[in-house]
Amino acid sequence: MTADSDRAAIDAAWRRVPRSPESVARVGAFTRTRVERILSLVIAVGCAVLGVQGLITSLNTTAERSEWHPAMELIVFLPLGLMLMACVVGRFQRALAAIFVVIYTAALVIWPVAAAGVPSEPEVEPWIFFLLNVATVAAVLAFPLVWQIVCAVVIPVLWGVVRLIQAGFDPRYAIPVVLDVSFALILGGILVALGWMLRSVATNVDTARAKAVSSYAAAAAAEATEQERVAVGALMHDSVLAALIAVERAHTDRERTLAVGMAREALTRLANAESDAGMGSEAPVDAETIAHEIEVSAAETGSGLRVERSQLDGVRLPGVVARALALAATQAITNAVQHADGAGLRVAVHCEREPVRVTVRVSDSGAGFDPDAVPADRLGIRASIHARVAAVGGRARISSGSGGTRVTMEWADTA
């Protein structure tokens, strides 16, 4: 990737950072949503395996079937099949899982009646037993944590009671039933714990992510506010205050023409301030653009300045850099016209290749000034030249003395 494409990718990602609390809230369930989806698919696979095992057992135990069995199989396996389909599709799985838990619990309650008179051995489990943990894990999918725990305890215990009732409390069934209930309680507890752990981790990740996005959003808002403040300050100094000063000092026809041009530019920039794209885009432009924009801006102030060009052909640089250098040079020209009456004003743009380096020099032969003595509240040099060039990764130097003032602005491609 090139430096331009890298910068464009970063800008595109930054624009995706939410700028409002509502946007942050909408992205706050990223991990939890995916964990729920994974749980649904894993539960579907496990329940399908146990469901097939229970169905095969039900169909193979023809000797132990009663007239209730077809209806029992239908009311249990049909909701189970619908729940599995919903888990795979990813819709209505919670509702159908809750329905299956309720139906399965009801089937356990009526099991002693449905299996009355059917011979059974203690070592041979009926088909409904194989769906015991299916109901437990369905509760993990459907209910809050408290009800998950209740189901993980109540359903295995209910199965033990039902199994003993079916066997007429035969002592031979005691040990197998205790083992079955213990196994179901342990496995159910593990399933509930795993579900709680995964959801807790996902929730914590989403909380941390939401806080991070909120922090980035606050930083983006603060940066945007600061950029707007600097831009407005530069606009007020570059155009409005400069135009007012020019109007106050206008005594000759040339000065009045300069003041009119500066006032027109100030009004135009104020009118377009809200919709202005700021410093331009990252799209590469020719270095010639810098010289052209400087000449256009100089013409608007009443100056027929011609920019000296050196090795500009074929050199391209980001549009935001070209725009910043042109605006900074325009401010330097305005300062020279206001404070040195434009004496000996010259502007030169020079480029170098491999790596690309651009140098813009604005010089005059006025009386000069002391840059260190400029008050801190004057933005002409600090904001409109130094800060503007530094914002695009360049640097500006000002040297001034009795022989005049030279402003040098440089930018180099460091990618």
UniProtKB/TrEMBL annotation:
The chain crosses the membrane at residues 38-56, 68-89, 96-116, 128-161, 173-198. Residues 323-411 form the Histidine kinase/HSP90-like ATPase domain. One of its GO terms (molecular function) is ATP binding. Keywords: ATP-binding, Kinase, Membrane, Nucleotide-binding, Transferase, Transmembrane, Transmembrane helix, Two-component regulatory system. Pfam families: HATPase_c (PF02518). CDD domains: HATPase_UhpB-NarQ-NarX-like. This is ATP-binding protein. It comes from Microbacterium horticulturae.
